[in-house]
Design brief:
With 248 residues, the chain is α/β, with parallel strands linked by helices. It has seven helices and twelve strands.
Length: 248
């Protein structure tokens, strides 16, 4: 028996994270130049290794030219070599590497490396969920908190917790550091496929903000919104999100 999909995802996400940490530690680049080099080097490793290990599977990476022939294939690896380029370039730890396998449109296998924390979380070995925070904690973007999230947080009595990359935010819920991640600012499939696979395996609620399931390997890779939260909060968060209407 060869290497499992779960182990492959974990191994490659961790390896890409090590490359990124080493590149940053060398101190030869900084800011945007560091982020660009990190994206390129991590992507080169991930794409080379996926193609070697799974030559018959399709591949969708943020850093590769898309080939829509993937839409006709059952299995597609969906990769973000460096989620949170800004945070990585700023020397922060709230950035991630995403490795996911979608099968027939469903996020099936995922690994999210948090190299700055020395962690790789996977769908193959889900963490036990921690008790809910008191008061609840709701994740928002460091730079542009979504108005819907602020609206829901105020009504559900949650404190806002600002954090960088999508992967870091999603894994904060998995790790029990927060309870709700509601994102309405738009993402792409590589931004959340791996986090969704890991969150689902951990027993969290995952859906679009209207409650519908998230489908992957679409011709258009844009995904407007996402909810990852504790299962017992999902009904109330979805209800409140539906009540939100922009002013103006």
């Amino acid at each position: 028996m060869g290497e499992s999909d779960e182990h492959l995802a974990e191994r490659l996400a961790t390896a890409a994270g090590a490359i990124l940490l080493d590149l940053r530690a060398r101190g030869e680049l900084e800011g945007k130049a560091l982020g660009k080099a990190g994206d390129e080097q991590a992507n080169a490793l991930l794409c080379r290794e996926i193609r070697a290990a799974r030559p018959h599977d399709a591949l969708l990476s943020e850093e590769e030219k898309d080939n829509e022939a993937r839409c006709g294939q059952s299995r597609v690896w969906i990769v973000d070599p460096l989620d949170g380029t800004r945070e990585y370039g700023e020397g922060r730890d709230d950035w991630a590497v995403h490795m996911a396998l979608a099968v027939d449109g469903v996020a099936t296998v995922g690994a999210v490396a948090l190299p700055g924390l020395g962690l790789t979380l996977t769908s193959g070995a889900p963490l036990p969920l921690q008790p809910a925070n008191q008061p609840l904690k709701m994740l928002v973007s460091r730079t542009r908190p979504a108005a819907e999230a602020v609206f829901v947080a105020e009504r559900i009595g949650a404190d806002l917790l600002a954090m960088g990359s999508a992967g870091a935010k999603a894994m904060a819920v998995v790790r029990g550091k927060a309870d709700i991640y509601l994102h309405t600012g738009g993402q792409y499939e590589w931004d959340n496929c791996a986090p969704v696979a890991v969150a689902q395996a951990a027993g969290l609620h995952v859906s679009r903000v209207d409650g519908s399931p998230i489908r992957y390997n679409n011709a258009d890779t844009y995904l407007p919104d996402l909810l990852i939260c504790r299962m017992e909060l999902a009904e109330e968060v979805l209800r409140l999100a539906a009540q939100y209407s922009p002013v103006g």
